[in-house]
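Form 7-S
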Amino acid sequence: MTDDKADGRCPRLTAQLISGGHVHSAGVGPKGSTQYRQVRAPADNPIYVAGLSWVSC
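Output:
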C-alpha cells in the first residue's frame, strides 16, 4: 500500500475476525512510502472481512 497524503495519518490493513476482535498491520508512512503489508489471523478465528484504516504517524 502507499501513503499518498501528508496528513499525519498512515494507512494500515484492518481485519475483523469471525469470532470477534480485530488484527491490524503496521501503518505505512510518511507520504510517498510504498510497503507490502499483511495481516494474519489465528487458525481458530479466521478473517471475516478486511479493509483499510488509519493510524497517526
